Amino acid sequence: MTMLKFSTATVLVAALGLGACTNATLIDNYNGDPNQNTKSGAIIGGILGASVGALSNSSNKGAAVIGGAVLGAAAGGAIGHGLDQQAAELRQQLANDGITIVNTGDRLIVSLPNDLTFASDSYAISSAVQSDLQKIADSLLRYPDSSVQVIGHTDSDGDASYNQGLSVKRADAVADQIQAGGVPYNRVQTTGEGEDQPVASNLTPEGKAQNRRVEIVVKPQSS
C-alpha cells in the first residue's frame, strides 16, 4: 500500500500560504455567487494538494498526487465555504453601506471607513457604527475558528509619525469594541500602518477618503 508522506494540515497550511500572497486590500472579488470561494478554495486546494503530493517522497507519485489533490480540495473547499457563509451573513446584517466586505478566498476583510467610524483627528468610535461592530463581534463568536487582526490606516496628510500613532489608536479602539462584544482578547491582534498601505491615490479627496480606514481581517485557522 502506498504511504502518503503528507497530512491534511500540510495541505491546508500550503493553501493558506498561497492565499497570503494575495494583496487582499486591493481587491473585492465578490461576484454575486454565494459559493464562489467554496469553489475557488477547492480548486486552489486541489492544485496545491497535488503539488504537495508530487513533491512527496512516496514511491507511487501518481497516488500521492491524487491523494494530495483530494485532501487539498476538501481543505480548501471547507475554508471557502465558511468564508462564503460568514461574508453573506455580514452583508445582510450590517446597516452601513459604507462598510465593505472583501472575501479573498482565504480571509475576510471588513473595512470601516474612518470618516464613518471616527470624528476628525479622533479615535473615539462614532455611535453610527457601534451596532455594526457588535454584529461583527457576534459573527466572530459564531465562527470561532479564526484569528482576527485589526489594522489602522490613514491618508498621507500631515506628519507621518503622527499618522502612524493615530492609526494604532484607532485600531486599538475598534479592537476594544469587538472584545467588549465578547470576542476573546487572545484572538485579536492590532497594528497601525499609518499612511504606508494606501488602496487609492492620495492626490484626490476621494482617494484619501478610501485610504482612511480600519480593516478587520478574519483568517481561518488551520487544523
UniProtKB/TrEMBL annotation:
Parts forming coiled coils: none
Keywords, sorted A to Z: Cell outer membrane, Membrane, Signal
Cited InterPro entries: Bact_OuterMem_StrucFunc, Gly-zipper, OMP_bac, OmpA-like, OmpA-like_sf
Membrane among keywords: yes
Assigned GO CC terms: cell outer membrane
Span list, region Disordered: 189-223
Organism superkingdom: Bacteria
Protein name: OmpA family protein
Cellular localization per UniProt: Cell outer membrane
Residues covered by the OmpA-like domain: 105-222
Organism: Parasedimentitalea marina
The keyword Signal appears for this protein: yes
Record-linked PANTHER family: LIPOPROTEIN YIAD-RELATED, STATOR ELEMENT OF FLAGELLAR MOTOR COMPLEX
Signal peptide per UniProt: 1-26
